[in-house]
Amino acid sequence: AQSVTQPDIHITVSEGASLELRCNYSYGATPYLFWYVQSPGQGLQLLLKYFSGDTLVQGIKGFEAEFKRSQSSFNLRKPSVHWSDAAEYFCAVGADFGTASKLTFGTGTRLQVTL
Amino acid sequence: DAGVTQSPTHLIKTRGQQVTLRCSPKSGHDTVSWYQQALGQGPQFIFQYYEEEERQRGNFPDRFSGHQFPNYSSELNVNALLLGDSALYLCASSSTVDTQYFGPGTRLTVL
Question: Using one digit for the tens of pLDDT, what is the confidence trace for A76-103?
Fold first, then answer.
């Protein structure tokens, strides 16, 4: 069965500082990996996705993520955080068929940004 | 181009009642998936509809059922509501060539 672990429940960074959110997955085949962001009381917005090819993927809002098969990780990074980045971030892995497959999510990391 | 829309935004029900939530997919998408997000948790997959049939199902009881219409919109029905069904219900639409995009959700409170 597929699973996702986000080890950090809550992270606080200063505005302008760099950010890395950790994600580890368990999946038997080549995974489809995603990062979503959720503002309070809102739905999920797709930041970026990895299916194959270049292991460093660029997303919206200046975010990027790197797929490392040997570490079963897909960490999210941003070089300089803005106060508007404060939100909940979810990593997800897709099942084994197509982009329309079900997603398994981690429990999320809440990002707080201090000014 | 409208994204995924859901109705209603909020809903309050009492234990034992039944509820229907609605979802309209993003233009060009033919697959609808439903997720339950309890407070402080990540979303959990309920089921997915494609061509008006349930294609996949997560670990949810039969009290949770759904339907997809010819225009690809979908409904989620929950019977015999329990307090533990209180959650944010998210709908996501997708296609074979596009990933899942989520709607704003319906907040269900069961009293």
Answer: 999 999 999 999 999 999 875 555 678 9
Q: What is the mean pLDDT of residues A16-31?
A: 91
Which CATH code fits A3-114?
2.60.40.10
Mean pLDDT along residues A19-43: 90
Domain boundaries, chain A: 3-114
Among the partner residues A90, A99, A104, nearest to B98 by beta-carbon distance? A99
What is the rounded average pLDDT for all residues in chain A?
92
User: Hey, which residues 56-85 in chain A have their CB within 8 Å of chain B?
Assistant: none
Average of per-residue pLDDT across A31-36: 92
Which residue of chain A is at minimal alpha-carbon distance from B95?
Answer: A100
Total residue length of chain B: 111
Residues in B closer than 8 angstroms to A107, CB to CB, are 40-42
Structural domain harbouring B98: 5-110
Domain count, chain B: 1
Contact assessment for residue B19 and residue B83, using Cβ atoms and an 8 Å cutoff: no
- Give chain A positions within 8 Å (CB) of B58: 102
| Chain B residues inside the 8 Å CB shell of A41 | 107
Indicate the residue of B31, B41, B90 with minimum beta-carbon distance to A100.
Answer: B31
Tell me what the mean pLDDT of segment A42-63 comes to.
91
